[in-house]
Amino acid sequence: KLSSREPTVDGAGMGLFADESVSAGRRLIEYTGRVLTLKETRLLPDRSYLKMVSFNRHIDGSGARSSAARFINDNMDKSRMNSRFVTVAGKRVFVEALREIAADEELFVDYGRAHWILSSHSGFLGLERIQSPRSAIDSQMDGRNVPAQQGGMRTTVALDTYALVCMYESDVISTDSHQSLGQELRVSSVGGCRIEANCEIVPNPFIPSTTMVRAVRPIAAGDELVLPPPLATLQ
């Protein structure tokens, strides 16, 4: 038997607890909710409760009819993970005990990096918009020539070299209101921005046909994220 209560980790709304001792390997609860395609998930205002089953099958656990599995937390400490998600027949997802769990112990799972990328429009926790001048040439990305504008993005956490920062572009994002924050990054250019590029655009290892922004060197918390200019502007 499980119940939702005040969590033992800061910043979480609720937590999922075992009301009785549980043996290792036992399936505790199924993660249920609306089944959505990848494209449908990109139009959700809140993707915090999404569980990816496969590339084009996702469970939205935010609804009132969803199971209490949506309350299980990731405490970011792998040594304390006592449960895991198990996919069955490519359609259903269960929470399974990794070890013996004591009564009144909170359940924790590793959400996985794919969850954090899919669950927010930025694709990464720790980004914020800033106001900084951008020249017209800075705004030319991949052949797109858009008017000069104010803006940019910076990280609120330190990033290591090759850290995946956020989504950049996706063929499943079809409306302007759901564009990735990665496309708001400033671009280093010959005649405009003099800040050295500290990021690059790379294929998304989690979602085919999409791209991500990746750090090319260590980036300190508070630093602006800057992409290199497209090749066309250097010719």
Automatic annotation (TrEMBL):
Domain of life, per lineage: Eukaryota
Signal sequence interval, chain numbering: none
SET domain sequence ranges: 1-112
Listed SUPFAM superfamilies: SET domain
Pfam families on file: SET
Classification via SMART domains: SET
InterPro entries listed in its UniProt record: SET_dom (IPR001214), SET_dom_sf (IPR046341)
Organism placement in taxonomy: Eukaryota, Sar, Stramenopiles, Ochrophyta, Dictyochophyceae
Coiled-coil ranges from the UniProt annotation: none
PROSITE patterns attached to this UniProt entry: SET (PS50280)
Descriptive protein name: SET domain-containing protein
